[in-house]
Design a protein that fits this description.
heterodimer; A: alpha+beta; Arc Repressor Mutant, subunit A; 2 domains; eight-stranded antiparallel sheet; 4 helices; 9 strands; globular; B: 82 residues; mainly alpha
């Protein structure tokens, strides 16, 4: 079982990396900041995702695809902060918690509606909804929560 | 877990599941669900060890507070599926 303090540091580097650059660091990039060999960092990556199983690797790789609330693999949920669109949310629900990664900043969520393709936007700051276009924007869970539902929770 | 322009847009989505008629959240509900205490600490250096373990109970409590108490939302076994 890995050291909890080390997992905390790995988590923080991963999340900070995503916030700073829009993409998740590779395990080889985590090695030096964490004082690990590259091999140990690779092992730690897998331990990190066991401890934080709502994130996931792209199948058959050691590349972080999703580390919620953000995604390294692009989704339709584009996030803009300070006029820069370089982040993606894991899903429409997680998009509404990205605001907590950018304190004091306006976070703009933009996505095409899956029904019609027309755009929808939501703006938030420090957890507050500043506005939505159209105002009728809703969240929808298509498969219930829980492993028994048979589909990934973020779909 | 998607955003739609309105409930009617979600219902017209070809992938819409009949059981998911109960799957709507308003934007204020979403902001509440994803704005619980643990969410505010995602950048804390001890988030994974100190805050993440509290997340599931917090989510459940919030869902119950807005009346989302079915197996669909709580992830509990659904008698209709067994």
């Amino acid at each position: 079982m890995p050291d909890a303090a080390l997992l905390d540091r790995a988590f923080t580097h991963m999340m900070r990396g995503l916030v700073d650059t829009g993409t998740a660091p590779h395990y080889a990039e985590l090695a030096r900041p964490l004082g690990l060999s590259v091999e140990a960092s690779q092992t730690l990556l897998h331990e990190l995702l066991q401890a934080y199983p709502i994130g996931w690797l792209h199948p058959e790789t050691d590349y972080i695809a999703s580390f919620p609330p953000l995604n390294s693999l692009p989704t339709q949920y584009r996030i803009t902060v300070r006029g820069e669109q370089k982040w993606f949310a894991q899903c429409g629900f997680e998009a509404t918690s990205v605001t907590w990664l950018f304190p004091g900043e306006t976070v703009r969520i933009e996505a095409p509606c899956l029904d019609c393709g027309d755009p929808l936007t939501v703006e938030m700051r420090d957890g507050r909804i500043l506005g939505a276009d159209p105002e009728s924007v809703v969240g929808h869970l298509n498969y219930g929560f829980g492993a028994s539902r048979g589909r990934n929770w973020f779909l | 877990m998607n955003l739609f322009r309105s409930e009617e847009h979600a219902r017209r989505w070809p992938a819409f599941q009949p059981k998911a008629e109960q799957g709507f959240l308003t934007l204020p509900q979403l902001a509440g669900f994803f704005g619980t205490e643990t969410r505010r600490h995602m950048l804390d250096p001890d988030y994974l060890s100190a805050w993440y373990p509290k997340r599931a109970a917090e989510r459940r409590a919030y869902l119950e507070s807005i009346g989302k108490t079915t197996p669909f939302w709580l992830g509990t076994p659904d008698p209709e599926e067994t």
